[in-house]
């Protein structure tokens, strides 16, 4: 257990509370119980405030076979806790070669149960130490794990061990923003059969979690003030371009984010754009931009105006959920040329 100071901060000093009383572990090395002094002074202050009487005994392992009465420390009771601490340290080292060691202590509080003592000194359970998982463990997360995590969150579920997104969002096929660490955390729990915590992995550009989220078809976008997507390596861009003949403008987008090639290929699906436009006109009676509402026919006329409306493949996530997915018109949106290009640029930049 640990103590929480009056400002709500945990002290780096280990304590135990049992039927015998309060055990304060010794100070040793550079990190073990480095807040020993603060902890002991806080214990004494809180016992004083509660009006609880106590005795203090040296409790180091070498002396535990000595009768308790012979290990009792003598110190002044009606002096400030800082003075009391110095007297206790002097007493615990009396007769030894050391004059300043901070040893393990037992604070005996007759008539007080462990539950009462925990309440009096405001002790808290020590948070478990969580190590970063190796890359081999993180890579056990598959697209299927990620898709199911997304579905759980969209259905109202949560990943309570993870905070809401602060720097980045992942966008689903319909543009719903989710916290990347919540999505990956849930996927990791299913993949490894563990309870996942933020310390298990890192989030950010170049991290395995982001890599796997994007491989599963999610778009990652930074929030205001967060780092933008880093520029892709030339070899990655060239590899993407080797399988696709882009326009000059599309090449700029691809250099910003090579993954957009898959998206652009879907938008060139033979006949699909025409079918989408035909269905859209049949439903609405005209073509207009689904983002800004522009009706180009009003400005450019019925013959030329519709040329301003392009087809955008917006269901990237769904399209990558199943191998061999065939695009359908519900995967598409009608956008004016301006909105379409701005959206592609945002996808490339990750904003």
TrEMBL record:
Q: Which EC number(s) does the record attach to this protein?
A: 3.1.21.-
What enzyme class is recorded for this protein? hydrolase
Q: Does the keyword Hydrolase apply?
A: yes
Source organism, top-level taxon: Bacteria
Keyword terms of this UniProt record: Hydrolase
* Single annotated GO MF: hydrolase activity
Query: What name is this protein filed under?
Result: 5-methylcytosine-specific restriction protein A
For this protein's source organism, the top of the classification is: Bacteria, Pseudomonadati, Pseudomonadota, Alphaproteobacteria, Hyphomicrobiales
